[in-house]
Specification:
By secondary structure, the protein is of the alpha+beta class. It is built from eight helices and 17 strands. It binds manganese (II) ion (MN) (2 copies). The site of one manganese (II) ion has 4 residues, from β5.
Length: about 350
């Protein structure tokens, strides 16, 4: 008899049955997150047909212009996840303070942090964007969580993932036992288990960084990238390729599927900001996925998941991907970051010499 393909729901229930600590309500919570992602996928797939492209004429809490779709995706995430009774509170890129569960709904045991639409500046040019989410446990006895209750290091995440809205829509997920990918079958409306056990090779010849920030990089990053660019005749002894999509979800997805290293390091461009990406709903969930796939995620100075957050919208330097390459760069942070990088080992081939 025909055995239908395994769905996301079936995968989650299987995982639950194997879970030692039993996590009530978790299956249903993931169902709601999945539904939010399907709703956003549908909305984004309509493109300009719905008149929802373009700016919303507002700024988010971090002073960045919001797109109409940023706000709509945020509403979808809040409304789809607040009623089920699984969450005690939510934090979003688009909201200054935690979202409290409305009075009429029961409170649950989990906290959800999310970036409803990542890479939204790419929307109008039809490049892949995504949604990123991170699930934490609500501290015991807390029913109306404040910002402080969300400030848990990434190691405390019970689940993290993203949806990518590309040529196909996929949901990529970890529950702390490997990383698994599901592809949306639009005809039956279900995510199908298409990518079991994603693994990132330890080595790579592909790096991703926004090179327009080169003059602001710290010495370790300048040296590392310079050496990549020097290729086979440089100290690394191999040629590298470069990628930059400017969409964190799309960069992560590429690295999970075929390897590589991604860098958005701390730099000196805006000294008040210790990096570009947000710790709670961008860096932490991505780092959890990467480490679960055998890669490494780092601030440059140490494991990203070990960082204890001090603010909801805190920014951080993030480097992740192929384990051995991330280790090279961490080593450079230790050895070279206290002095200016100025003497390329390979003379005139250092394109990014500041
Ligand atoms: Mn984002
Ligand atoms: Mn966003």
């Amino acid at each position: 008899m025909l055995r239908p393909e395994k769905t996301l729901t079936e995968f989650i229930i299987d995982e639950q049955r194997r879970s030692p600590q039993g996590t009530d309500g978790f299956t249903a919570l993931l169902n709601d997150i999945r539904l939010a992602c399907k709703r956003i996928s549908y909305l984004i797939g309509k493109g300009a047909l719905t008149g929802n492209v373009g700016l919303a004429n507002s700024l988010n809490v971090q002073g960045e212009p919001q797109m109409k779709l940023d706000l709509m995706a945020n509403e979808i995430f809040l409304r789809t996840n607040e009623w089920g009774g699984y969450l005690a509170g939510m934090v979003s890129e688009e909201l200054e303070a935690p979202h409290q569960i409305p009075e009429q709904y029961p409170r649950g045991r989990y906290l959800l942090a999310f970036d409803p639409l990542d890479g939204s500046s790419n929307i109008d040019v039809n490049v892949s964007v995504g949604s990123i989410f991170s699930v934490l446990r609500c501290p015991e006895g807390v029913t109306a969580p404040t910002a402080a209750d969300f400030l848990q290091p990434g190691t405390q995440q019970v689940c993290a993932g993203y949806a990518i809205y590309g040529p196909s829509t996929m949901l990529v997920l970890t529950l702390g036992r490997g990383v698994h990918g599901f592809t949306l079958d639009r005809e039956i409306g279900e995510f199908i288990y298409t990518h079991p056990e994603l693994r990132i090779p330890n080595d790579t010849r592909e790096f991703a960084i926004n090179a327009s920030n080169a003059r602001f990089w710290e010495p370790a990053v300048k040296r590392y990238v310079d050496e990549c660019l020097a290729g086979e005749s440089g100290p690394r002894g191999k040629d590298f390729n470069m990628r930059w999509i400017a969409s964190l979800v799309a960069e992560t997805h590429r690295i999970l599927l075929r390897g590589g290293i991604f860098m958005y390091p701390r730099d000196t461009k805006e000294p008040t900001k210790a990096g570009r990406l947000r710790l709670l709903y961008e860096a932490n969930p991505i780092a959890f996925l990467i480490e679960q796939a055998g890669g490494r995620a780092s601030t440059g100075y140490g494991p990203l998941l070990a960082v204890t957050p001090h603010a909801l919208h805190q920014r951080i330097g993030l480097i992740f991907g192929a384990r051995h390459e991330v280790e090279v760069l961490e080593n450079y942070h230790q050895k070279y970051n206290d002095r200016e990088y100025e003497a390329p080992l390979f003379g005139a081939r250092g394109l990014f010499r500041a």
